[in-house]
Give the backbone structure.
Amino acid sequence: MKRQSSALSRDSQAELARQLKAGEFSPLYLFEGEEIYLREQALKRLIETAVDATVRDFNVSPVSVAGGNLDQALAIARQLPMMSQRRVVIVTGFEMTTDERQLELLKDYVRQPAGTTVLVFVSAALDNRRSIATMLRKTCVVVSFQRLDDRDEAPRWVADYVSRAGSRIDLAEANYLVGMVGADLRRLTNEANKLVSYVGGKGPIERADIDDLVRYSRDHSNFELTDAIVENDRARALRLLNHIFRNPPEPPQTLAVMILGAMGSTYRRMLAAKELMGRNAPNSEVARAVGMPPFAVGRFNESVRRIDIERIVSGMARIAETDLALKSSLATPRLQLELLICELCSVVGDTRRAERG
């Protein structure tokens, strides 16, 4: 399913690039997805193609409607452009709109959008149970910006980016860089730019260059590690653990305790989410309860739905047991965590097999 989603994401971005190159514009777009860098780059290209730089200040209007002022954004969209063929209006903060009057105004607009305006709705994620999501998906050209897979897509993206910047990096080293900093393309871009400048024209970027120049991100590692466990990706979780312990910023014992703390926090959020989903609470309520942004909670909820509540409680107990074992066992902190990760991922795997059976 994830590979299919990634393919649809690439296809929609490629189609947008083709349209812009041909000078074709839709009056309505929905830019959706968690990959902020690609989304921002696509929006920048759209604006640069649609509106001449000399009159851009008059004809590009970013509007946040989180305060319930969607009607104001639509009013701007109906205005004629100034000394330009078209204007671009970028709307954010619309995801939670429930006001019937505002929704009716939007329905009227999408039925007959202004021919001289490119109206772009930008969202990290939409709750498909809301009527505004259904309306926009039916009427807008949807361009998806899903996060790249850190095992294959992100390293290939790095290699391509470095090549376009006039340097070279082998896939093995690109994968090593992604393992250090994560698949967030904004950070990967910053690190890749530093590396390209560092090596100049001397040759390809080597692993030693990455070690010299790139700071390992502990926060990224802990987040990605617990995310991999929730998604039952044992291989990825163990690979991330290996990266963390390769050059630990703290003593192994301290580092293990910090990782266990991140795991315990994730499992407590899972338990809270499971209980709220059992009451059919909307994603927005789950997001508030677990302290996650609305765009991130959808994928989290999908993983939590596959695990029964007893397994979550059991996982919390195993995390607590491992914490105690770190203080009393002869086994190394890394070995303790490896065993825990294998057990936790097996818990999720057993649940999935039971669902299929």
